[in-house]
C-alpha cells in the first residue's frame, strides 16, 4: 500500500525544525559531503573538557584490515555532565527532567534536573565507595523507576560501563549476560510492579549469582533498592537507601576519552543468541541528541514520552540520553498499557499534555483491538508527533495510529534502527515530507543507506534487497564485547565496505525505504523470494485477525511453502462462543473456519500474488514473542518444520515459555 499522507503541519501551530523536503535534502547532503564539519558543529554544542583532535577515522572494509570506528578522537567529555550539569549551568535546574508515573495511577512525582543531578551524584559516590571503578561493567536489573535512570547516569559519571538487563528476564538469561559482561556488581530492586502483579526479583538475582559462580564469576557487590516491600534475607546485599544516605550530593566528573565504552547492551534475540553490543561515549552522545531533536521535532516546552523499557536500546536512547541531552521533560512510566484499564497510555498523555509519543507496533496493535471508548474518553489534543519502532508496522495499524490517536493532526514517524545503530537511522522528519503508511521514509543526517542485490550491485527501485549502510554515523556500535571477530563477521563480511543490517527492504520511486523484514524471515517459494510482512499485511486486512506471522516451512518441491499463523480478535465475525469451541469438532465453527481460510488465501492472492498463497493457515492462541514484544518467526519455523529438529533454537529471550509449549502441542496434533 502506498497511500501518501500529507500531514497538515500548519495545524500543529509550531514551526518544525525542518519544514520542507528541500531543507531536509540540503542538510542531508551537507552531512554526507562533509561529515567532519557537520558532526563537528553538532558536537560543539556539548561541553568538552579537552576538545577533539580528529572528528572521524575508520575502516569499514574487512579487506583493508580490522574494522574500527573512532569519532572525536583526542577529546575528553562526560555524557552525564552533558545530560545534567550543563543544563543547570545554563540556569535550567528547575526544569522537570522526568515526570514519574507509577504502576498505580495515584503514584506519581517529578524530578527536576537539579534534583536528579543530586541523586545521581550521591549514587556515583556510593559506587565509588563500594569499589566500582572506571571500566568496570555494572549490571542493572530493575523496574522502570527513577533509580534505574540514576544507576545508569551514576555509572556514566564515573566511567563504569552500564549493562541494563530487562527486568522480565529469567535467572538463566540474566546470568548469561552477567557472565558475558564479566560484571562483579549488580544493581537491582526487590521486585517489580506490573499491573496487578508484584514480581519478586531477589530470588531471580540469587539464582543468577549461583549460575555465575558455577561459571567462575563471583558477583561480589549487589545493591538492592527496596521498592515493592519484599524482604531481602541475603546479607550480602547492600541496601540502596542506607548506602546512598551517607553519600554527598556532589561528585566530581570523570573526564573520559571520546572512545571509552559507555554501555553494553544485548540485542533482543529475535534471530538467535543475543549479541553484547558495545557503544562508546562521544559519538553516541552526539547522535542520540540530534536524532531526538529532529526526528521527533523536539522543541523547548514539549513533554516527550518514549514508552520503551530501558532494558532495550530505545529506552537507552530515547527515554534517557536523547531527551536529557536536549534538556527535555520526559515521562517515565513504570506500568503497563492495560492497567488499570486499556486507556492507561491515553490517560497519561492527557494528564501530562504529552507532545511526542513513541511506542512499538506490538503496543499499537494491541491497543487498536480494544474498545474505542478507552481512547475516546481522553483529550489527546496536545499530541504532535507519534513514533513507532521495533518492527514493520502494517498499514492498518499505521492508519489507526494516525487517525484514531493522532486525529489526523500528528506526524507519524516510523523509525527504523537497531541496538547496533545506537539511534534511529531511517525515519520521516515531521513536517519535512509526506508520510507513507508502512514506510520508514528517508535516511537521517549522516546516514547513507542502500539496498543491494546479492552480487553487491544496487537494487533498482521496487526491487527488494539487503539494507546496508555505507559509512559510519556517530552512534554506530564499536564492537561485540569480547568478540570483535563476530562483529566483523556479522556486519561487515557479506558486503565488504558496508555495514549489513540483516534486514531486507526496497526503495520506491520517491526514494522512500520500505523495510520488508529480517533476511532470515524472507521466504523462498518455488524460487520466489517473499517477505513475511507482505503476506502478513494482506492477512491483516481481514478484521477478524488480531495478529499474524507468516513463515516459510521446508517443502520437498517448492523449497519452502508459506504457513500463516494467526491470532483471532476476541470480537470478530466469529463470535466468542465459537472461538471457545474451536478445539471441539463443531460444524458451525468448521464452516466459519473454512470461510476464514478462504478469505485469507484470497487476500494474499489479491495483494501479493497467487505464488504466495499460504499452504496452511493455523489459528493459534498466541504468537511467540521476545520480551520486547517482537514476533519470533524463527521459533514458529522450528516448531512446525516437517524436518524433525533435534532441538529448538535459542529460547532464552521468549517472553512466555508456555506459548512455546502450546505451539509444540498444536504442531503434534497437525500430524506433520
Ligand atoms: P537480534 O539481533 O538478537 O535478533 P533484534 O534484531 O530484534 O534481535 P533489536 O536491535 O532490538 O534486536 O531490533 C532491531 C531490528 O528490529 C531491526 O534489525 C529490524 O529487523 C527491526 N526493526 C526496528 N525498527 C523497525 C521499523 N521501524 N520497521 C521495520 N523493522 C524494524
Ligand atoms: Mg538484530
UniProtKB/TrEMBL annotation:
<feature type="domain" description="Acetyl-coenzyme A synthetase N-terminal">
    <location>
        <begin position="24"/>
        <end position="83"/>
    </location>
</feature>
<dbReference type="Pfam" id="PF16177">
    <property type="entry name" value="ACAS_N"/>
</dbReference>
<dbReference type="InterPro" id="IPR042099">
    <property type="entry name" value="ANL_N_sf"/>
</dbReference>
<feature type="transmembrane region" description="Helical">
    <location>
        <begin position="138"/>
        <end position="160"/>
    </location>
</feature>
<keyword id="KW-0067">ATP-binding</keyword>
<dbReference type="InterPro" id="IPR045851">
    <property type="entry name" value="AMP-bd_C_sf"/>
</dbReference>
<keyword id="KW-0547">Nucleotide-binding</keyword>
<feature type="domain" description="AMP-dependent synthetase/ligase">
    <location>
        <begin position="90"/>
        <end position="478"/>
    </location>
</feature>
<dbReference type="InterPro" id="IPR032387">
    <property type="entry name" value="ACAS_N"/>
</dbReference>
<dbReference type="InterPro" id="IPR025110">
    <property type="entry name" value="AMP-bd_C"/>
</dbReference>
<dbReference type="InterPro" id="IPR011904">
    <property type="entry name" value="Ac_CoA_lig"/>
</dbReference>
<dbReference type="InterPro" id="IPR020845">
    <property type="entry name" value="AMP-binding_CS"/>
</dbReference>
<dbReference type="Pfam" id="PF00501">
    <property type="entry name" value="AMP-binding"/>
</dbReference>
<dbReference type="Pfam" id="PF13193">
    <property type="entry name" value="AMP-binding_C"/>
</dbReference>
<dbReference type="GO" id="GO:0016208">
    <property type="term" value="F:AMP binding"/>
</dbReference>
<protein>
    <recommendedName>
        <fullName>Acetyl-coenzyme A synthetase</fullName>
        <ecNumber>6.2.1.1</ecNumber>
    </recommendedName>
</protein>
<keyword id="KW-0472">Membrane</keyword>
<dbReference type="GO" id="GO:0005524">
    <property type="term" value="F:ATP binding"/>
</dbReference>
<keyword id="KW-0812">Transmembrane</keyword>
<feature type="domain" description="AMP-binding enzyme C-terminal">
    <location>
        <begin position="534"/>
        <end position="630"/>
    </location>
</feature>
<dbReference type="InterPro" id="IPR000873">
    <property type="entry name" value="AMP-dep_synth/lig_dom"/>
</dbReference>
<dbReference type="GO" id="GO:0019427">
    <property type="term" value="P:acetyl-CoA biosynthetic process from acetate"/>
</dbReference>
<dbReference type="GO" id="GO:0003987">
    <property type="term" value="F:acetate-CoA ligase activity"/>
</dbReference>
<keyword id="KW-1133">Transmembrane helix</keyword>
<keyword id="KW-0436">Ligase</keyword>
<comment type="similarity">
    <text>Belongs to the ATP-dependent AMP-binding enzyme family.</text>
</comment>
Amino acid at each position: 500500500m502506498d497511500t501518501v499522507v500529507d500531514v497538515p503541519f500548519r495545524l500543529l501551530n509550531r514551526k518544525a525544525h525542518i519544514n520542507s523536503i528541500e531543507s531536509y535534502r540540503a542538510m542531508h547532503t551537507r552531512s554526507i559531503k562533509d561529515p567532519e564539519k557537520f558532526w563537528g558543529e553538532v558536537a560543539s554544542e556539548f561541553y568538552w573538557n579537552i576538545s577533539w583532535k580528529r572528528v572521524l577515522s575508520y575502516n569499514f572494509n574487512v579487506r583493508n584490515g580490522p574494522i574500527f570506528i573512532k569519532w572525536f578522537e583526542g577529546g575528553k567529555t562526560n555524557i552525564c555532565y552533558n545530560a545534567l550539569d550543563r543544563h543547570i549551568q545554563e540556569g535550567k535546574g528547575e526544569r522537570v527532567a522526568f515526570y514519574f508515573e507509577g504502576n498505580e495511577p495515584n503514584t506519581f512525582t517529578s524530578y527536576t534536573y537539579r534534583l536528579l543531578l543530586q541523586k545521581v551524584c550521591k549514587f556515583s559516590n556510593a559506587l565509588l565507595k563500594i569499589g566500582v571503578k572506571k571500566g568496570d561493567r555494572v549490571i542493572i536489573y530493575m523496574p522502570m523507576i527513577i533509580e534505574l535512570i540514576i544507576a545508569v547516569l551514576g555509572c556514566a559519571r564515573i566511567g563504569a560501563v552500564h549493562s541494563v538487563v530487562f527486568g522480565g528476564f529469567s535467572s538463566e538469561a540474566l546470568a548469561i549476560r552477567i557472565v558475558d559482561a564479566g560484571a562483579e556488581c549488580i544493581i537491582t530492586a526487590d521486585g517489580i510492579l506490573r499491573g496487578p502483579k508484584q514480581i519478586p526479583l531477589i530470588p531471580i538475582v540469587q539464582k543468577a549469582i549461583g549460575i555465575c559462580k558455577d561459571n567462575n564469576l563471583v558477583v561480589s557487590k549487589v545493591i538492592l533498592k527496596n521498592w515493592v516491600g519484599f524482604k531481602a534475607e541475603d546479607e550480602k546485599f547492600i541496601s540502596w537507601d542506607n548506602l546512598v544516605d551517607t553519600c554527598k550530593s556532589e561528585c566530581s566528573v570523570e573526564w573520559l576519552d571520546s572512545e571509552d565504552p559507555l554501555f553494553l547492551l544485548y540485542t533482543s534475540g529475535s534471530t538467535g543468541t543475543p549479541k553484547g553490543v558495545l557503544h562508546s561515549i562521544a559519538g553516541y552522545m552526539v547522535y542520540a541528541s540530534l536524532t531526538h531533536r529532529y526526528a521527533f521535532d523536539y522543541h523547548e516546552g514539549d513533554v516527550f514520552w518514549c514508552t520503551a523499557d530501558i532494558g532495550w536500546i530505545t529506552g537507552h536512547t530515547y527515554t534517557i540520553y536523547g531527551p536529557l541531552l536536549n534538556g527535555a521533560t520526559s515521562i517515565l512510566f513504570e506500568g503497563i498499557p492495560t492497567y488499570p484499564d486499556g486507556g492507561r497510555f491515553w490517560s497519561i498523555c492527557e494528564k501530562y499534555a504529552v507532545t511526542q509519543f513513541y511506542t512499538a507496533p506490538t503496543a499499537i496493535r494491541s491497543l487498536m483491538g480494544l474498545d474505542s471508548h478507552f481512547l475516546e474518553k481522553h483529550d489527546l489534543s496536545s499530541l504532535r508527533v507519534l513514533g513507532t519502532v521495533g518492527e514493520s508496522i502494517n498499514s492498518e495499524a499505521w492508519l489507526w495510529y494516525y487517525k484514531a490517536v493522532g486525529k489526523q493532526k500528528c506526524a507519524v514517524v516510523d523509525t527504523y534502527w537497531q541496538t547496533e545503530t545506537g539511534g534511529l537511522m531511517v525515519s520521516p522528519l515531521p513536517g519535512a515530507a509526506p508520510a507513507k503508511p508502512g514506510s520508514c521514509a528517508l535516511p537521517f543526517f549522516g546516514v547513507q543507506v542502500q539496498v543491494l542485490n546479492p552480487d553487491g550491485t544496487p537494487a533498482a527501485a521496487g526491487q527488494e534487497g539487503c539494507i546496508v549502510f555505507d559509512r559510519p554515523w556517530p552512534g554506530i556500535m564499536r564492537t561485540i564485547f569480547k568478540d570483535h571477530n563476530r562483529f566483523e563477521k556479522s556486519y561487515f563480511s557479506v558486503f565488504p565496505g558496508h555495514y549489513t543490517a540483516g534486514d531486507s527492504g526496497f526503495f520506491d520511486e520517491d526514494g522512500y525505504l520500505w523495510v520488508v523484514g529480517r533476511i532470515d524471515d524472507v521466504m523462498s517459494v518455488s524460487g520466489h523470494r517473499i517477505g513475511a510482512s507482505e503476506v502478513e499485511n494482506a492477512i491483516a486486512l481481514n478484521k477478524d485477525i488480531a495478529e499474524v506471522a507468516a513463515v516459510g516451512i521446508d517443502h520437498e518441491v517448492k523449497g519452502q511453502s508459506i504457513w500463516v499463523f494467526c491470532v483471532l480478535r476476541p470480537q470478530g465475525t466469529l463470535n466468542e462462543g465459537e472461538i471457545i469451541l474451536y478445539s471441539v469438532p463443531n460444524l458451525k465453527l468448521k464452516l466459519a473456519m473454512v470461510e476464514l481460510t478462504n478469505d485469507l488465501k484470497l487476500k494474499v492472492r489479491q495483494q501479493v500474488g497467487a505464488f504466495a498463497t499460504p499452504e496452511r493457515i493455523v489459528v493459534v492462541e498466541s504468537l511467540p514473542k521476545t520480551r520486547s514484544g517482537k514476533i519470533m518467526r524463527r521459533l514458529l519455523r522450528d516448531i512446525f518444520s516437517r524436518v524433525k529438529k533435534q532441538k529448538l533454537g535459542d529460547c532464552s529471550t521468549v517472553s512466555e515459555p508456555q506459548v512455546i509449549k502450546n505451539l509444540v502441542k498444536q504442531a503434534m496434533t497437525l500430524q506433520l
